[in-house]
Here is the input.
Amino acid sequence: MSESSRSATAGPSPLISCRGLGKEYSARVGIPIIALKDLNIDIPAGEFLAIVGPSGCGKSTLLRLLAGLDRKTHGEMELGGNSIDGPRKDIGFVFQTATLLAWRNVLENILLPVDVLNLRRSDYYGRAMQLIEMAKLAGFEKKYPWELSGGMQQRVAICRSLINQPRLMLMDEPFGALDAMTRESMNSELEDIWRTIGQTIVLITHSIPEAVFLGTRVAIMSARPGTIVDVLSIDLPRPRTLDMTTSEKFSRHVRQIRSIFDAHHQPIP
Here is the structure.
């Protein structure tokens, strides 16, 4: 690691801890595919960790492991000191597309996890309305997905992932399908949501500027088999504004991350 980087270990009592994490997939013909190998990182509670890496390096595989949607092959992976070995109720997941149910309106989509977990709706209605207000969706409670823009649909998906107050929220390229202007706006809104609720977030993105804008730290992954080659702390004040993206300090962080990719022979645009 460079001197300006920070260790993958962040604090004595991390919320998430990965040690020697590895994932292999069996192949019909030939040797198994090694997606992740010897990955180590600690993530403290309340952090916004952004992860960048070349396509096919195992970023989404890592998120699926953290969510308990897939099983590791090697190593250790813990949430709050307990092994992650299956799906958990205290982890939220925001996918690349909003995946809203067309027959449910905004409020009903946000309350979906409550229904799936057989919880009492009356205990969560107030929180749903607070999330709607926070995500600037007030007045759209009764609208259906086809009546919303792509950005609004993703805001509904974010609210849905937060309805049962998960300890960890995982986000897999949630804004990748949006146009550039909407994506910038969603970055600002996600920044506001994170500062408001203090949720621990792990975000995967192919955009280095997006990672710098949102992250308290940025973890950089190698090509497959994926591992974390460096972790950088982002020295930018909060709240962050889009004006900051033209500053020299912001550009310096972006250049530093790009140089790490170059050093590992994996330049990206």
Observations:
- The beta strands are 16-25, 33-43, 48-52, 74-79, 82-83, 91-94, 168-172, 200-204, 217-221, 228-233.
- Residues 180-197 form the longest helix (18 residues).
